[in-house]
Automatic annotation (TrEMBL):
Gene source species: Handroanthus impetiginosus
Protein name per UniProt: NAC domain-containing protein
Domain spans labelled NAC: 16-160
GO molecular function terms listed in the Swiss-Prot or TrEMBL record: transcription cis-regulatory region binding
Transcription listed as a keyword: yes
GO biological process: regulation of DNA-templated transcription
Lineage: Eukaryota, Viridiplantae, Streptophyta, Embryophyta, Tracheophyta
Domain of life according to the entry: Eukaryota
Keywords: DNA-binding, Nucleus, Transcription, Transcription regulation
C-alpha cells in the first residue's frame, strides 16, 4: 500500500490520494479544529487556511484556500464594528456579509458545543446592497467549549 503523507507540492497544495475530500461535520469543525485554534493561536490545520474576511472579497477566497473545490475552510478572527462594542464588523471594500436565518445549535452527543450562523454576501452598502450567490457559515464556540468554560490561562487572550 502506498504511503500518502502530508507533502506539499510546489504550489503549496497537498498531495493526497485520488478521491480525498475534506468534508468535516459541523461537530468536527468545532471540536477538532476551532476549539484547538482558540486554545492555541499557533495551531494550524492542513486543510484550513487563515484569512481576514474584512480584507478579502468572496471571489478571492478560492485562491487563498489550502484545499477545496466548491467549499473552502478558513480560520478568521472576528472584527468588532466599534472598539468598545460587541457588534461584529462584516464589511469588505466591495460589500458586506449579512446574517440570515436562525443560528443552528451544534451538539457533540447531547452536549452543546457550538453555533453555526449563515451569512450571505451583498455587493454595495446596506441597506441597498445587491444579494450575491456567495454563502458563508460562521462557527462559534458555545456551551462546554465557550470562552467562559475554557481554562483561565486561555481567557486572557482576546479572540473577538
Amino acid at each position: 500500500m502506498e504511503n500518502y503523507s502530508e507533502i506539499p507540492n510546489r504550489d503549496d497544495e497537498m498531495e493526497l490520494p485520488p478521491g480525498f475530500r475534506f468534508h468535516p461535520t459541523d461537530e468536527e469543525l468545532i471540536t477538532h479544529y476551532l476549539s484547538k485554534k482558540v486554545v492555541d493561536s499557533g495551531f494550524s490545520a492542513v486543510a484550513i487556511g487563515e484569512v481576514d474576511m474584512n480584507k478579502v472579497e468572496p471571489w478571492e477566497l478560492p485562491w487563498r484556500a489550502k484545499m477545496g473545490e466548491k467549499e473552502f475552510y478558513f480560520f478568521c478572527v472576528r472584527d468588532k464594528k466599534y472598539p468598545t462594542g460587541l457588534r461584529t464588523n462584516r464589511a469588505t471594500a466591495h460589500g458586506y456579509w449579512k446574517a440570515t436565518g436562525k443560528d443552528k445549535e451544534i451538539f457533540r452527543g447531547k452536549t452543546l458545543v457550538g453555533m453555526k450562523k449563515t451569512l450571505v454576501f451583498y455587493r454595495g452598502r446596506a441597506p441597498k446592497g445587491e444579494k450575491s450567490n456567495w454563502v458563508s457559515h460562521e462557527y462559534r464556540l458555545e456551551g462546554k467549549f465557550s470562552l467562559e468554560n475554557l481554562p483561565k490561562a486561555v481567557k486572557v487572550i482576546d479572540y473577538h
